[in-house]
Amino acid sequence: MNKVWFDHGNAEMTVQGGALWGNAYKPLINARLNGWAVNGGRCPTVGVSGFMLGGGVGPFSRSLGMGCDSLIEISIVTADGELVTVGENNAPDSREGMLFWALCGGGGGNFGVVVQMKMRVYSLVGEKGIVTAGRYTWLPDPKDNHRTLLSSMFRFYTMDWSDRMTIDSSWFSDTEVENGAIAVRFIVYYDGNERDFGREIRKAALDRELEKQLQRRVLPEKSSRFFHETLVAQWDEETVRAFPSNGTFRIFSSFCFGNDAGSFVAINGIVKEELEAFRRLFKGEKNCLCQASFIHSGGEASRRPRDATAFRWRDTVYHAYIMMQFRDKFLERDMRSFLGKFKDRLRPLSLTKQACFVAFPDASLGDDAYEKAYYGENRLKLQQVKRMYDRTNFWGWKQGIKVPPSGNRRRRREAEEAAGNYEEEFSSGESVAPEDLTDQVASERWEKSFEPAPCEWLATGGPEGGGAWLYGGPTGGGARLF
Ligand SMILES: Cc1cc2nc3c(=O)[nH]c(=O)nc-3n(C[C@H](O)[C@H](O)[C@H](O)COP(=O)(O)OP(=O)(O)OC[C@H]3O[C@@H](n4cnc5c(N)ncnc54)[C@H](O)[C@@H]3O)c2cc1C
């Protein structure tokens, strides 16, 4: 299910539902089609279906729009086992048109299994198919109490970058790197040559060393090489972390920020303080990481209205997420409670004080909170589509779109909606308490990955009666413990 067909003449690509972005980039790479792009994910290991269903923010979304804006047609198998193909040619208020709208950002696991997608292929604007891309990790000197860090990052986030410029930034404190000192990693994708990139960077008036290194650590290259080699190099840590075989645990929360000056004075201050607190709290622990990543969006992705597709938070300029990573399962309670406080400080600064990116879901959002956080007012139309295509909630995802209520409850909700205050509700306090999720990630992994030991092992101390097993016994690929 990962075949890809590229129709060069019509600039369209058809991709099967199991394809990864690496599969979709391949025809462009193999034919060295420099200057051509599909609006895909940063990591070639991300699935095309999951990405599109979440809306999708790609390295060139600032000039091409959201990933789902490039969809022409999508085929799914519904809960009834029916194969349905819907697309942009369906009338928007028809059953099919509404399903297409819902599949563009309504999240995974809601309406059916995607088996095929047809999407547009675009021309980049850089001359001769050149893009300029790179990566730089900045370790700012903490001596001035991080005044340089804060002032540079303030200018960086509030700068009115051109649509050709995309720079993701991740602040982090890693107990394995420089004793957890604050660092910021920048990942650059520029649709154009090095000279034009440098000109834009210099306009931002960042710290001199940062400005210099951002220009030194990029390379101009043909776009086919960028898709083949550079995306992998830029995102290698994140890709490896996402492998199921990775032994660490990770918990997330996400936010949708604009880029107004008032918010970014506060956001930068909070991120700095929390990373410093993380460093103090987890000092001496091994393999602990706290990362606040800002995925650069806006530009063309923001130019359509919030209800153009199910993906609601189009006016986001930075899709941000906090990731806490740890290896020791006994740290989950402390990590969760740290994340809980960190996100409570940032949440009021997110769009409508509640927005969260469904592609980076937050497992701690409670039953009353997650639909508002992921979809805002778009959830009402999503619920209608859910009733049309999955009335019994066959797919049953924990944070799935709810089948809408009927009778009095429905009338009450319609009255609330008419009162017009629906989207402004602040969801603080609707989250699940961190303590209630203690031992969630480790126990979920245990339930999913390990077959229970047969009873006779328990009685005899192992299959040959000679001891216990570490990591699941012979079928679980583990080793004998004693
Ligand atoms: C390393 C990494 C980098 C990322 N970079 C980006 C980025 O640049 N931009 C961005 O927007 N997001 C990014 N993401 C987030 C990513 O878009 C989401 O995690 C997305 O859900 C991944 O989809 P998947 O198919 O790979 O994952 P899965 O975990 O397999 O699926 C995610 C969801 O989609 C559903 N789903 C998957 N396939 C299908 C299908 N065929 N039919 C129906 N439902 C399906 C699943 O049921 C699940 O609910 C990144 C994630 C990672 C781990």
From TrEMBL:
Residues 1-124 form the FAD-binding PCMH-type domain. Belongs to the oxygen-dependent FAD-linked oxidoreductase family. Keywords: FAD, Flavoprotein, Oxidoreductase. One of its GO terms (molecular function) is oxidoreductase activity. Residues 405-445 are annotated as: Disordered. InterPro entries: BBE, FAD-bd_PCMH, FAD-bd_PCMH-like_sf, FAD-bd_PCMH_sub2, FAD-linked_Oxidoreductase, Oxid_FAD_bind_N. This is FAD-binding PCMH-type domain-containing protein. Pfam families: BBE, FAD_binding_4. It comes from Xylaria multiplex. Its cofactor is FAD. PROSITE patterns: FAD_PCMH. The keyword Ligase does not apply.
